[in-house]
Write a structure and sequence with these properties.
Number of strands: 30
Largest sheet: 7 strands, parallel
Radius of gyration: 29 Å
Shape: globular
CATH class of the largest domain: Alpha Beta
CATH superfamily of the largest domain: HUPs
Helix content: 40-55%
Structural class: alpha/beta
Strand content: 15-25%
Number of domains: 3
């Protein structure tokens, strides 16, 4: 066991674990980024950190998606793991462990948990009749739904889809037995959930009465088998929530010290759509297990595109990899951390990214660094030492620096990361005001000592800013701090050192290239470039075969010219085309376009490729998922609405019914060559 001082000096942060039915989108990144920023702040504060993220791979929704894709569930979930780790690595997400609910140690831990609760009477066998939402993997009662008509399918309160009625034998967790204990816990811990509005919602829900929770299914086979009853698989939330303790050793006696060291979690981050599971089911599970409650749930709002929540199922998800390519990794980390308010829903806008980069990162921050470095290099003052005595204005700047540092750490402890970054920007503005007021480019002409004091105060300030912003923009801040001659050191407890801060450091300045380049990429620019490149061609026509069949007769050298005047080609031209069968694994709407769909296509030995098609008026993303089609795979990649398209899907154009997929009577292996 750890002593109290060791226990106090740890920080355990978790993200929700993500359904692996598609690649991660911007909403997935947002939750994970918040956890990464929080973890980094606590590292800066000298704490030992454990950062957990991962994937939720069981349940009916995953099984159905796998079946639609023509794959076994495990094979299907395996296919997305590289996508998640690739995005996390691109964005410098420094997680310590990536858990999968298909991991054997997790499965064993969940089964141990079930056995213990069955033995103590908290789980019993019964039968369930009611309404179930497959996409949300949740049971819905009349209290939850706005639908009141007797016998009519209830609407899920989270996703607004109609639920399905189920009747089956199942195991129940005695959730109702923990109602009073939950209410007492909420009252004793009013800051358990941030923001407080979410706490009020949970308290009101629990006061309305809790029913026992069905935690097994017999109509689903893809899940963790119930111990001693293989007809049942574990309900996905009873499976998934336990990842937070199985990852650190629950159920494994040899890891008891590890569990004791890290649990309880200090911060658990999630979107508001899953707060009920984490704020009611999860604490009740822990109470039944004799484990401590998490210290804080940080519940953020949705990222919205227009008036809709961003989600894969709604087809408005945005690809974080493309954003990193277009705007930069640290720039996107900054935008998401500062501009997406945790306490409410936030609208995603491309123009806001450019505004943030140009006005805040490039002008307010980067320009300050560049002007300082230019002046010290020009005036041969790259070796900066603190003055023997600071002037009143410099001491006032130092005083404000101390106040803002204290505010930043307080806001970080509250989970208000976006406000913490805004407070850092208050200080950047103060330093800019100090710099402009003292006009060092003029002072150097008549008072070199005063010039050196202004430069030293500015560089001391930039050092503090770099340390405070390192959790948000680690790569950029390390580059900047290196240029100041004070490399970032993760072994230093910067939070503690800032409490007794005095400006007495020496610096060796090196001028570097522009820290933040101004953004030239805007959504409207992408649209103009795309339209200008293809002014005569509609997207839907770029991937169309205008004859209902493609036959060898239509491409033989002896064929006569077709009646519409199209020029015939020789066989030598046709064989240049590499035609392959591809299976569409995922498909989504391209935000900002009323024509384009973006598909992730499996070409077997050729791997996964992204293909854009102008077919939105003819097919929905849901209709395309799982379909096999004919693709040209050796076209040069081209950019459409800011996304690269690596191939062309072929369609037949029926004058009466529109576009039709050129498909197969029977499925074949992805990547099969056609010709």
């Amino acid at each position: 066991m750890q002593n109290s001082n060791q226990k106090h000096n740890k920080f355990y942060v978790t993200t929700p674990i993500y359904y692996v039915t598609a690649r991660p989108h911007l909403g997935s990144l947002y939750s994970t980024l918040l956890a990464d920023v929080a973890a980094r702040y606590h590292k800066v504060a000298g704490q030992e950190v454990f950062f957990l993220t991962g994937t939720d791979e069981h349940g009916q929704k995953v099984a159905q998606a796998a079946e639609k894709a023509g794959m076994k569930p495990k094979e299907f979930t395996d296919s997305f793991i590289d996508d998640y780790t690739s995005v996390w690595n691109t964005y410098n997400i420094a997680y310590d462990y990536f858990i999968r609910t298909t991991d054997q140690q997790h499965i064993a831990g969940v089964q141990t948990w079930l056995q213990r609760l069955i033995a103590q009477g908290d789980i019993y066998k019964g039968s369930y009749k009611g309404w179930y939402c497959t996409p949300c993997e949740s049971f819905v009662t009349e209290k939850d739904s706005q639908e009141t008509e007797v016998g009519k399918a209830l609407t899920c309160p989270d996703c607004s889809r109609l639920t399905g009625e189920v009747f089956e034998e199942c195991y129940f967790f005695k959730l109702s037995a923990y109602q009073d204990r939950l209410l007492a816990f909420y009252e004793e811990n009013p800051n358990f959930i941030t923001p407080k509005e979410r706490m009020a919602e949970i308290v009101n829900f629990v006061k309305g009465g809790l029913k026992d929770l069905s935690i097994s299914r017999t109509t689903v086979s893809w899940g963790i088998p119930f111990p001693d009853d293989n007809l049942h698989v574990t309900y996905v939330w009873a499976d998934a929530l336990n990842n937070y303790i199985t990852a650190i050793g629950y159920g494994d006696d040899s890891r008891a010290q590890e569990l004791a060291k890290w649990w309880p979690a200090d911060l658990q981050i999630m979107g508001k759509d899953i707060v009920r599971f984490h704020a009611i089911y999860w604490p009740a599970f822990l109470m039944a297990s004799g484990l401590a409650m998490p210290k804080k749930l940080l519940v953020h709002g949705w990222i919205k595109v227009g008036d809709q929540k961003m989600s894969k199922s709604l087809g408005n998800a945005i690809d974080p990899m493309q954003l990193a390519q277009d705007y930069g990794v640290d720039e996107m980390r900054y935008y998401l951390t500062r501009k997406m308010a945790i306490t409410q829903d936030s609208e995603f806008k491309f123009e806001d990214i450019s505004q943030s980069i140009n006005a805040e990162l490039a002008n307010a921050f980067g320009n300050l660094l560049n002007r300082m470095a230019t002046l010290v290099v020009k005036n041969e003052a790259t070796h900066l030492n603190p003055p023997a005595q600071w002037s009143h204005s410099s001491l006032e700047l130092q005083k404000q620096c101390q106040i803002i540092c204290d505010d930043v750490w307080s806001l970080v402890d509250q989970g208000m990361l976006y406000r913490a970054v805004a407070r850092i920007w208050d200080y950047i503005n103060l330093v800019n005001a100090y710099f402009h007021e003292h006009e060092p480019w003029k002072v150097i002409k008549h008072d070199r000592e005063k010039f050196l004091e202004i430069m030293s105060a500015t560089v001391h300030s930039l050092q503090i800013i770099g340390i405070l912003l390192w959790p948000v923009m680690p790569a950029k801040m390390e580059l900047m701090l290196n240029s100041l001659g004070c490399p970032f050191d993760t072994s230093i407890n910067y939070k503690e050192s800032m409490k007794t801060m005095s400006w007495k450091n020496s610096f060796i300045i090196q001028q570097i290239a522009t820290l933040f380049a101004k953004s030239e990429i805007k959504k409207e620019d992408i649209e103009e470039v795309t339209q200008a490149a293809q002014p005569q061609v509609k997207p839907a026509q770029q991937a169309v075969i205008k004859t209902p069949e493609v036959t060898q007769a239509s491409v033989t050298p002896a064929a006569k010219p077709v009646e519409n005047g199209t020029e015939n080609i020789g066989i030598e031209d046709f064989i240049k085309l590499d035609l392959r069968i591809g299976t569409i694994i995922d498909c989504e709407i391209v935000t900002g376009s009323d024509k384009l769909l973006k598909s992730q296509v499996d070409f077997g030995p050729l791997g996964m490729r992204q293909v854009l098609s102008g077919i939105r008026k003819h097919y929905s993303p849901e209709e395309m998922k799982g379909k096999q089609g004919l693709f040209v795979v050796n076209l040069k990649p081209r950019k459409m609405m800011g996304f690269d398209s690596h191939g062309m899907m072929l369609f037949a154009l029926d004058e009466l019914s529109g576009l039709k997929i050129v498909g197969l009577v029977e499925q074949v292996a992805p990547g099969t060559k056609v010709g």
